[in-house]
Structure formats: structure tokens, C-alpha cells
Design goal:
About 0% of the residues lie in helices and about 50% in strands. The protein contains no helices and 5 strands. It has a 5-stranded antiparallel beta sheet, with no helix packed on it. The relative contact order is 0.26.
Length: about 70
């Protein structure tokens, strides 16, 4: 018999949600991307993982909320 633990579902009340198309500051440039994941850092701040690129995408991790803004 296999016993599995239930994963705890944590709801994060964030400004941006998974799948939103945003711009963000990365290495002093403005880059477009899509919100890939939302999490809480060890210090208690909301941080985002953002996917950039098309054919060969990459995920930029731990982007703070103040560095993100919506595309117009």
C-alpha cells in the first residue's frame, strides 16, 4: 500500500498572477516576459519567476514586485 501526503495549498494574494504578460527590469534593461510562478521569499516578500524568450525560453527567478509593471 502506498500512502501519499496531501500537498499544502498556499494561496498568495499577489498583484500579478500566473500567465500575465508583463515587462520587468533585468540588468538595467526592460524585458518582456510571462509570469511563470509566484512564491514567497524567506524574508516574506512576494517574488515572481518570469519566463522570457521564444524558441529557447529561460526562467528568471526571484524578481521582486517593484521591478515589474504591466505591458501597455
Amino acid at each position: 500500500m502506498c500512502f501519499k501526503r496531501k500537498k499544502k495549498v498556499i494561496t498568495i494574494n499577489s498583484r500579478y498572477h500566473k500567465g500575465d504578460v508583463v515587462n520587468f527590469k533585468y540588468r538595467n534593461e526592460i524585458c518582456p516576459g510571462i509570469i511563470y510562478d509566484v512564491s514567497i521569499s524567506h524574508s516574506g516578500e512576494i517574488v515572481y519567476d518570469i519566463q522570457i524568450g521564444g524558441e529557447c525560453p529561460t526562467v528568471i527567478r526571484d524578481i521582486k514586485d517593484q521591478d515589474i509593471f504591466l505591458r501597455k
